């Protein structure tokens, strides 16, 4: 789906921008060009997509989101022993911001093209 594609793109961007993150996900031996085909990568990207979708679907429910993030934090604290550096969240945030800007630009261009087609039919 489109959402899965976006999640995969964001996750791939994270691993491209900061390749040392690959080790945390058990992907350090996978060549960069093969990542998106790897089943472990795809599974992690799917989890990432579902989490992102949950956030978008619950933007109006701050308490629900807070509970989700506290739970997520509890699960992820164990990864500090694997070399997870909390600064990696900055990488995730930056890659999500870049992807969001890219999506907004594509949506804007689609609207312009659609409007131009309407104008040409008149």
Automatic annotation (TrEMBL):
Q: Which family does it belong to?
A: Belongs to the globin family.
Gene3D superfamilies for this protein: Globins
Domain Globin residues, every copy: 1-118
PROSITE patterns the record matches: GLOBIN
Query: Gene that codes for this?
Result: WBGene00110281
Report what the protein is called. GLOBIN domain-containing protein
| InterPro entries, sorted | Globin, Globin-like_sf, Globin/Proto, Mb-like_M, Oxidative_stress_globin-like
Entry GO MF terms: heme binding; oxygen binding; oxygen carrier activity
Keywords, in A-Z order: Heme, Iron, Metal-binding, Oxygen transport, Transport
What domain of life does the UniProt record list for this protein's source? Answer: Eukaryota
């Amino acid at each position: 789906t489109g959402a899965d594609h976006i999640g995969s793109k964001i996750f791939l961007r994270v691993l491209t921008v900061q390749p040392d993150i690959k080790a945390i996900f058990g992907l350090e031996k996978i060549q960069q060009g093969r990542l998106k085909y790897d089943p472990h990568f795809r599974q992690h990207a799917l989890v990432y997509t579902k989490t992102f979708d949950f956030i978008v679907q619950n933007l109006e429910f701050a308490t629900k989101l807070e509970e989700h993030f506290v739970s997520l934090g509890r699960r992820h604290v164990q990864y500090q022993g694997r070399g997870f550096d909390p600064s990696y969240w900055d990488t995730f945030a930056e890659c999500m911001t870049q992807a969001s800007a890219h999506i907004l630009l594509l949506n804007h261009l689609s609207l312009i093209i659609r409007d131009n087609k309407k104008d040409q039919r008149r």
